[in-house]
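re: ur question from earlier - yeah i can do the single chain one, its not a big deal. heres the input i used so u can compare w yours
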Amino acid sequence: MARIAIKVHPRAKRTAITGRLGEAYKLDLKAPPVDGKANAECIRFFATLAGVPRSAVRIAQGAAGRMKVVEIEGVEMGEIERRIDLAR
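and the output i got, formated as tokens:
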């Protein structure tokens, strides 16, 4: 299982990882932080990136804040970091 620390920036022009902030990744989200739309977009993004179903991705910490920890079942941390590097 991979655990990724992220800092989200809702209402961006597009959804993408834009850099690092210490140990956390900066994630721009196109969705607004209203009615769970930003969290749903975050889960969708990481499920697509990892090639797993959305049910394998969950926000383990920080669901109501900008700093989050996302857990992804079925992939290792090294594989996720490799895919993030390829996506940037």
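The mean pLDDT is 96. not sure if urs matches, ping me
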